[in-house]
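Need residues for this backbone.
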């Protein structure tokens, strides 16, 4: 089963969902803006993605610019910020088996399908 962490308001996330449908993947949609991700879940995703927490942050979001831009945050503080402000989480995130990818560009998800 493939999992997509999806924000319906994001065009890249919608494109990734369309790719899953086209590829006839069995998938589960998690609307992380509605179902907030815990710190533990974010740590798990970051580990699967094999990235640093800052690489999952959308640094162009106004919340980032207003609250965090000039801060020297630790990894744990970054993860806590994403848990509190899900808009900061880069999207979409697609997981299949033990592989995960950020779908930017959306065709990047084909790497794990």
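Answer:
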């Amino acid at each position: 089963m493939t999992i997509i962490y999806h924000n319906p308001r994001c065009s890249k996330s919608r494109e990734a969902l369309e790719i899953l449908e086209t590829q006839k993947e069995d998938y589960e949609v998690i609307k992380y803006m509605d179902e907030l991700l815990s710190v533990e879940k974010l740590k798990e995703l970051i580990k699967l993605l094999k990235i640093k927490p800052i690489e999952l942050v959308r640094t162009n979001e106004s919340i980032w610019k207003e609250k965090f831009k000039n801060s020297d945050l630790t990894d744990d503080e970054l993860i806590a910020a994403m848990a509190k402000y899900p808009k900061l989480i880069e999207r979409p995130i697609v997981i299949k088996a033990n592989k995960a990818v950020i779908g930017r560009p959306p065709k990047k998800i084909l790497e794990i399908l």
